[in-house]
Design brief:
There is one protein chain. The protein has 13 helices and two strands; from the N terminus they run αααααααββαααααα. The protein has helices at about 5-20, 25-45, 55-65, 70-90, 115-130, 140-160, 165, 195-210, 230-240, 250-265, 270-275, 280-285, 295-305; strands spanning about 180-185, 190-195. A two-stranded antiparallel ribbon has the order 1-2. Strand 1 (about 180-185) and strand 2 form a beta hairpin. The radius of gyration is 24 Å and the shape is globular.
C-alpha cells in the first residue's frame, strides 16, 4: 500500500475493523466521518497521516474544544484516531504511532437518563390503551401503528436491546416457542435475552397486522427494509407525550437504561445485567450502579450487626 492516499488508508482500516472485529455498519460509518474530518484537518496543516506527530494530534483535539465539541465526543474521536494510527504502525505503513502519548480530554462522569418505574408503567399503560382504543379503527393504519408501538415498547423494556437490534428483529422472533431471543450484538457476539409474557403477547398481536412475507418483524420501505432507528425515536416521543412524559426525557436508549437500572434496583447481579445488555466490558455496565446507592445504604443500615448497638459511654460513633 506504498504511497496510499488518506482515503485509501481509511478504507483499509475500516475493512480491517469489519473483517477482524465484526464492526457494525453504523460503527464503520461513524468512524469514516471522524477520520475524514481528522485527515482534512491534517491536510489543511500540510501534514500526512503517515508522517505526523503527537503535537498535531493534540492541536486537532484542542481545535475540537474551541469548536464546542463535548468532551465525551472528543474522547470518542480520539479513540478512533488512536485505532487508526495504531493500525498504520502495526501494518508498517508508519514509523511511529503519534497518538500513543496523547492524553484524552477530561470529562465528568455523566449518568444516564433514566425513567422511574412508575413512568415506564405510565408509558406502557398508555400504549396499551391506544392499541385497543375504538377510535383507532376509524383512521387507516392507526390501529396497526399503535399495535406496533406497543410491541416495540414491551419488547424493548423486557429485553434491554440496543435500538439497532430491536428494529432489525426477524419475524421469527414473534413465533418462537422459546421464552428468550438469541440476539447478535456488537462484534457478532450472540447472547440470550429473556422475553416476558407481555412482550410475547404484543409480538403475536403485532404479527397479525403484518402483510406479506418479509424477513423483519418491523418491516418498512426504508433502505434497510426494516423500521429505522430515527423513525422509532420520533414515534416514541409522541407516545411519551401521550403518557404525560416530557419528550426530551425519552428515547430508545433511555428505555434501555431503564431496563438495566430497574433490574439493579430490584437486586439483579451486575454481571447478569452486563450479559443481558451485551456489554463486552463490565466497566461499561458499572455506570448504572449509581441507582444502587440508596438501596445499598439501606441494606447496610438494616443488616449490619453493629448498626443497632449503642455507642460506649464517652465515645462518639463513627
Amino acid at each position: 500500500m506504498a504511497g496510499a492516499e488518506g482515503p485509501d488508508l481509511i478504507v483499509a482500516y475500516l475493512e480491517m475493523l469489519a473483517a477482524e472485529r465484526g464492526a457494525a455498519a453504523n460503527t464503520l460509518a461513524a468512524y469514516r466521518r471522524d477520520l475524514d474530518h481528522y485527515l482534512a484537518a491534517l491536510s489543511a496543516s500540510g501534514r500526512d497521516p503517515l508522517d505526523t506527530d503527537a503535537s498535531e494530534v493534540r492541536a486537532y483535539l484542542a481545535d475540537l474544544e474551541t469548536q464546542g465539541l463535548k468532551a465525551s465526543s472528543a474522547a470518542r474521536r480520539l479513540s478512533c484516531i488512536r485505532g487508526f494510527h495504531k493500525f498504520l504502525y502495526a501494518e508498517g505503513l508508519a514509523d511511529t504511532d503519534p497518538s500513543a502519548p496523547v492524553g484524552g480530554p477530561r470529562r465528568g462522569r455523566t449518568l444516564p437518563k433514566v425513567l422511574s418505574v412508575s413512568e415506564v408503567d405510565d408509558l406502557l399503560r398508555t400504549a396499551r390503551e391506544r392499541a385497543v382504543a375504538p377510535q383507532a379503527e376509524d383512521v387507516p393504519g392507526e390501529r396497526r401503528r399503535a399495535v406496533r408501538m406497543l410491541c416495540l415498547l414491551e419488547t424493548l423494556y423486557a429485553t434491554g436491546l440496543r435500538v439497532s437490534e430491536l428494529v432489525a428483529l426477524p419475524r421469527s422472533a414473534a413465533t418462537t416457542k422459546q421464552r428468550y431471543l438469541v440476539v447478535k450484538g456488537k462484534g457478532g457476539r450472540e447472547r440470550l435475552v429473556p422475553l416476558t409474557d407481555l412482550a410475547r403477547a404484543a409480538m403475536r398481536e403485532h404479527l397479525t397486522h403484518l402483510t406479506g412475507d418479509g424477513p423483519f418483524l418491523f418491516p418498512s420501505d426504508s433502505e434497510s427494509g426494516h423500521l429505522t432507528r430515527q423513525a422509532f425515536a420520533r414515534d416514541l416521543k409522541s407516545a411519551a407525550a401521550a403518557a404525560g412524559i416530557r419528550e426530551d426525557r425519552v428515547s430508545p436508549h433511555v428505555l434501555r437504561h431503564a431496563f438495566a437500572s430497574h433490574l439493579l434496583q430490584n437486586g439483579a447481579d451486575l454481571r447478569i445485567v452486563q450479559e443481558l445488555l451485551g456489554h463486552a466490558d463490565i466497566s461499561t455496565t458499572q455506570i448504572y450502579t449509581h441507582v444502587l446507592d440508596e438501596r445499598l445504604k439501606s441494606m447496610v443500615r438494616d443488616l449490619h450487626p453493629l448498626m443497632d448497638e449503642p455507642a460506649e459511654s464517652g465515645t462518639t460513633p463513627a
